[in-house]
UniProtKB/TrEMBL annotation:
This is Probable molybdenum cofactor guanylyltransferase. The gene is mobA. It catalyses: Mo-molybdopterin + GTP + H(+) = Mo-molybdopterin guanine dinucleotide + diphosphate. Gene3D superfamilies: Spore Coat Polysaccharide Biosynthesis Protein SpsA, Chain A. One of its GO terms (molecular function) is metal ion binding.
Amino acid sequence: MIPLTAIVLAGGKSSRMGRDKALILIEGLPLLQLVCRVAGSCADTVYIVTPWQERYEHLILPKSQFIQEVALSVEPEQKLSSHGPIVGFAQGLAHVQTEWVLLLACDLPKLRVAVLQDWKAELDTVEDDVIAALVYHVKGWEPLCGFYRRRCLPTLLEYINQGGRSFQEWLKQHPVKVLPLADPEMLLNCNTPEDLPSL
Ligand SMILES: Nc1nc2c(ncn2[C@@H]2O[C@H](COP(=O)(O)OP(=O)(O)OP(=O)(O)O)[C@@H](O)[C@H]2O)c(=O)[nH]1
Ligand SMILES: [Mg+2]
């Protein structure tokens, strides 16, 4: 198996949920802990990118390291928590040493290790010019549960420095491999209190 790093994003505002999604209990486990456990079954190292690591230091997070997210020079300090997942990803990616990285949101309670392992097994056959391998659906790419090549960092930074904040818009500019997904439930992400009872 190829060496892999995972990045878990835990710097969102959870404004629709009304409380920090990373700490919501799913079958007794804080969601961030659950996602990092899945990430750790596929990757050798897990980076948790967040501006508020003190909230999560008490969790059991094997193989994991925090990456302290910082404000961009173009943004005032108070905008730190709203600069969005693409900026958090870029700050995490700057630390990655492996060719491929698995990017995960922290609000994915239905992740399946077997599916991620199947996807991982395909990575060594991905064409050289491809920058990411992701699930595609009618609304576009699923950017927060899939794989990126480390060498996409320069184009990602260029896009961000020009003011871009949309994964969809950035991904449109590059070749991306489509990953198969038989059961879309795995990508269920919990955004509102109404998403919780179904879990
Ligand atoms: N590190 C980091 N992660 C982020 C940032 N914005 C969103 N995320 C993460 O990206 C993932 C998807 O985010 P959303 O589902 O939109 O969650 P959110 O932004 O916390 O929630 P809303 O405020 O309700 O939109 C979650 O894992 C968030 O924690 C950010 O600025 N930095
Ligand atoms: Mg979400």
